[in-house]
Design brief:
Blueprint lengths: L4 H14 L6 H19 L3 H14 L3 H13 L3 H14 L4 H17 L1 E15 L2 E2 L5 E8 L2 E8 L5 E8 L4 E7 L47 H27 L3 H7 L8 H34 L12 E7 L2 E7 L1
Length: 336
């Protein structure tokens, strides 16, 4: 355990130069910090805590050193299934590292006689969760994981919240294989056009508003050619309300659950952690509200500039304005 975080940074930096899509400088610094925490826990013989820090370091900047210490920590913690799963990952990633290869083969020799080896294939590459535990490592098309005897749910996940789940009955010394195909990505529903402008129809351009019957100003009683100003004011009011809700949502997203809580609860769990998903949901809500507010502002501006009769002329009949709501849109309609 004499290796320093600086040495880990050098190893990870080398890996980054060797791979075009390697870790960033920020990732490498974060990996060094996690590695130091792992060393401290290892010295205290807090094996599970040490393993989580070493895995976090490896996730930020893949390193043979961090992965080797994660294998050792899981093994010392009595978690042979997780140590063996990491050992399989180590052989696939760092077969040229003699020390790591020797350690991994020793762990796997014990695991194959005591545990169940499960080969998992995913199309396309997926992340895995065994029961409630995220399998360490990047998304892959094929992994071998080790299970303690008994039943377990194997969950494969892809982008967009897509998942597949299958139960596996593990037996001592057993082997089996499962395959997952990702569900198709859901396409967002088409939203109806919003605003009081002409309805979209046909392939031709949207026709321009018809000109007034006479180009000269009528000195008598005038019928307005557009919407009354109250429609614009309703749109402006809705825009202010939506903006206020968006500001509230943004503040709520920053504070709940908060970066510190996510970092504390999601150490070593990856993006499937409930606290991380909660924060992501709040962020998506704020983005949607921001889009709605912007849409209302644009719609109100268009109504005020092009479709509102600001002349103030009198009308023979009374006017009526009714607000309306639609899927993904909001506005008002008038009868004059």
């Amino acid at each position: 355990m004499g290796l320093s975080a600086a040495a880990l940074l050098l190893l990870a930096s080398g890996a980054a130069r060797a791979q075009p899509a390697g870790p960033s400088a920020e990732d490498i610094k974060a990996a060094g910090a996690e590695f130091d925490l792992g060393k401290q826990s290892y010295k205290k013989r807090a094996w599970v805590e040490a393993a989580e820090h070493f895995e976090a370091a490896d996730a930020r900047a893949p390193s043979a050193v961090a992965l080797e210490l994660a294998v050792r920590s899981r093994d010392k913690a009595g978690q042979l299934d997780r140590a063996a799963t990491l050992a399989e990952l180590a052989l696939g990633r760092h077969a040229q590292e003699a020390g790591l290869t020797k350690l991994a083969e020793g762990v796997l020799k014990r695991a194959r006689s005591e545990l169940h080896a499960l080969k998992v294939k995913c199309t396309p590459a997926c992340e895995l969760v065994l029961g409630t535990k995220l399998v360490h490592g990047a998304a892959a098309a094929e992994r071998t994981v080790y299970l303690a005897p008994g039943g377990v749910q194997v969950n494969a996940s892809w982008s967009g919240g897509r998942t597949r789940v299958t139960p596996v009955q593990a037996v001592k010394g057993g082997q089996s294989e499962v395959s997952f195909d990702a569900p198709p990505e859901e396409k967002p529903p088409e939203l109806p056009a919003s605003g009081p402008g002409p309805k979209a129809g046909g392939s031709g351009p949207t026709p321009a508003p018809s000109p007034a019957p006479t180009p000269t100003r009528d000195t008598g009683t005038k019928e307005g050619g557009g919407l009354p100003p109250v429609v614009f004011f309703i749109g402006a009011g809705l825009t202010v309300v939506a903006a206020g809700v968006t500001v509230w949502s943004g503040i709520d997203t920053q504070n709940n659950p908060g970066k510190d809580k996510v970092r504390e609860e999601c150490a070593g769990q990856g993006t499937s952690c409930p606290a991380y998903q909660d924060g992501l949901d709040r962020q998506n809500r704020t983005n949607i509200l921001l889009g709605v507010s912007a849409g209302l502002a644009v719609t109100s501006g268009v109504i005020g500039a092009f479709f509102t009769d600001w002349s103030g002329g009198s009308k023979q009949d009374s006017a009526r304005v009714e607000p309306w709501l639609g899927l993904g849109s909001v506005g008002a309609r008038g009868r004059f």
